[in-house]
Amino acid sequence: MSHYHISNGTRYHLNLPRWLIKHANDPALYDFLPRLKDHLLSHILGREYDGDETEFSAAEHAQVLLINDRIFQHKVIHVNYTTYNLRRSQDSLNACMHADVMVLGHEDDDTHPYWYARILGMFHANIIYRSGDAPSFKPQQMDFLSVCWFGHDPNNYQSGWKAKHLHRLGFIPADVPGAFGFLDPQQIIRGIHLILAFAYGHTDLLLPPSIARPLNDKDKDWKFFYINIFVDRDMMMRFHGGGVGHKSTREATAVFLEDCDPLDEITQNDSEEEFEDLESGINEEAQLSGSTSGATQNQATSDEDEDDIESEMDEYGYAGLDEEEEATDEGEEEQLEADGLEEANDKVGPEDGEDNVVDEYKGYVEL
Asked: Do residues 84 and 233 make contact, with C-beta atoms less than 8 angstroms apart?
């Protein structure tokens, strides 16, 4: 599967000489054609992309021919990527909305592994490259993006997991070399979501009136933007490091694994011990909660049964039966106790001073 997809339609085209003359004073189009040919030559010759376009001579520029001096404009580009959990996904990008992208950085300072750009236009050109003794006149399609680059906030702004601040970006001023350039769509990692830094407001000092800015921006730019690293799980893992599916950027993003709060720096042994303690505590709580809930459930069940029996007795006219049975039982118990006491007295004999022997043997002659 290709890393990206862009149309090969030729319906919307720009005639480069006329277009550049029309916008001759636009700083975004300064040296547009020479810079474009530098980009195309680097791609044709297989030069490894390092962020800086190699400058070629005028003779080398003459070897690249744009058929009919035209470039063809497109509205959408689809970028395929592998998520952190080895699933396929796709970003749909266009120059009006969802125009911000991230690419792998190529700086000596490895504190941040990404570069960021905003897409100004999506194009392809049909070119002929004439070189050597046997030049080929077979046209080939080459895709490219016109972009303006973002820079990190230079005001000693601390960002990342340890600093607990989102990364902050701003446009590079137009008078700085390299503020505008071209990008091979193959270099795009995926699209990004930027949050406007409303507190810092707008400025018109970065770029004079230009076609690079949307009309509704009224020739002003936001000073700063925050990178929304929590826009989805895959994006968060790209700023955390260690994503299984991020094979192509894993080495570069290893720097994020060291960017963590001191409270999060727990050794593996400590983690295992804490996990075992937590697991044992959960099991004990579950057992205690199970026994308590079981006793409560049994008590509740017995109370419900008693209530059901009482309601049934009231419904069928058996109310008070228990009281009568209890009274009868109590009377019988008292009678039994009295009879038992008399029997015991009979067996023991008459009390002192009591003489009932005469009545017992009345009518008999004493032997």
From this structure: yes
3 state SS of 284 = helix
What is the pLDDT at residue 344? 46
What is the C-alpha separation between 59 and 39, in angstroms, rounded? 15
Q: Report pLDDT digits (tens) over 286-307.
A: 666 665 555 555 555 556 566 6
Q: Could you give the CA distance from residue 264 to residue 273 in angstroms, rounded to a whole number?
A: 15
Region of 31 on the Ramachandran plot (φ > 0 left; ψ -120 to 50 alpha; else beta): left
Name the residue with tokens 């003359």.
Answer: 21
- What φ, ψ does residue 37 adopt, rounded to 5°? -70, -35
What is the mean predicted confidence (pLDDT) over 230-247? 94
> Which residues, including other chains, have CB under 8 Å from residue 240's CB and lie 6 or more apart?
161, 256, 257
Give the model's pLDDT for residue 135: 67
Q: In the chain, what percentage of residues exceed pLDDT 70?
A: 70
Report the DSSP beta bridge partners of residue 76.
94
Which pLDDT score, from 0 to 100, does residue 102 have?
Answer: 97
> What mean pLDDT do residues 78-91 have?
96
Pairwise CA distance, residues 121 & 99, whole Å:
9
Q: What is the distance between the alpha carbons of residues 96 and 339, in angstroms, rounded to a whole number? A: 108
Residues 6+ apart with CB under 8 A from 171: 118, 148, 149, 150, 151, 179, 206, 207, 221
